[in-house]
Design brief:
Keywords: ATP-binding, Coenzyme A biosynthesis, Cytoplasm, Kinase, Nucleotide-binding, Transferase. With 308 residues, this protein is an alpha/beta fold. It is 38% helix and 20% strand. The structure holds adenosine-5'-diphosphate (ADP) and ligand PAZ.
Amino acid sequence: MLKLGAASPFVAVERSRWSELGAPAPPLAYDELADLSGLGEPVKLAEVSDVYVPLARLLELRIDAARQLSAAQGSFLGDPSHAVPYLIALGGSVAVGKSTAARVIVRLLQLLRPEWRVQLVTTDGFLLPNAALIEKGILARKGFPESYDRRALLRFVADLKSGVDEVHAPVYSHLSYDIVEGETQIVDRSDVVVLEGVNVLQRGSGRVYVSDFADFALYLDALETDVQRWYLNRFLALRNGAFQNPESYFHRYARLSDEEAVEVASGIWERTNRPNLRENIKPTRPRADLILEKGGDHFVSRILLRRA
Ligand SMILES: Nc1ncnc2c1ncn2[C@@H]1O[C@H](COP(=O)(O)OP(=O)(O)O)[C@@H](O)[C@H]1O
Ligand SMILES: CC(C)(COP(=O)(O)O)[C@@H](O)C(=O)NCCC(=O)O
């Protein structure tokens, strides 16, 4: 392990050392991995066994320890505690690979502990509907802090962590590029919830933040030029796939040439996602408990872990 200097709260673990932790790997077939992956290349099996399996083992250890602590404190207080879900927050830029990593982590936790109910929630469900963003003149700032119903998101995590039996999250569609009216995701009887989104580690002007309710916070990091490339590639893949659907908000981009599509996506990146990364997302990195640093090939090269 590498010390990052006396003032750093993190220790750095090189991939080679990290990959030796927490073996053996639970069985995860290539086909299943392809299903869990996003639009691009499937996540490599080596990436799962070297990076995500040790991560899932570490999370398993921390979840067990948190449960023991909660039970011990409950018996000290003479108040057997009502089990509440363990909340894992996963933040990072648009297109850095959060949804992909979150799906892999959820699946590995399910394989490691089949008795646990593990659910995935994405914060895009808490975006304001397009009509409200248009009214406020901030449609081009989708993903910025003010584009979310922050109070509803805070309420959601507060309810979850205070043991409310059934909590509802609104649902966002990347196809219609809008909130799906009347649809909700039910989170109930969960042992573990992974909450993924650009904003999970952000703080506003309030006194309480989403991260106050997170038991463990992950930040997925990469060079901005790499993330931009992944964003453009995903946009090109969407143009060949989802955008062809007439229901898609971006259907008007379905017939763009490669060059035109890159120009449109670069514009969205430069006007919206890059400034959001610089102003609102990257500054949350030091709040994480664990940072995964990815190289240009999506491989995690280094892990920074907050000292326990
Ligand atoms: N580990 C990985 N290996 C290969 N490709 C990946 C990996 N993680 C993400 N990607 C690709 O990068 C793009 C962005 O990933 P995604 O999970 O959609 O990002 P986010 O949820 O952060 O916006 C997608 O096209 C996805 O297929
Ligand atoms: C809705 C999002 C902010 C969600 O980001 P996520 O947390 O899923 O990475 C993003 O997908 C988005 O739509 N950004 C707006 C600009 C764009 O179309 O890329």
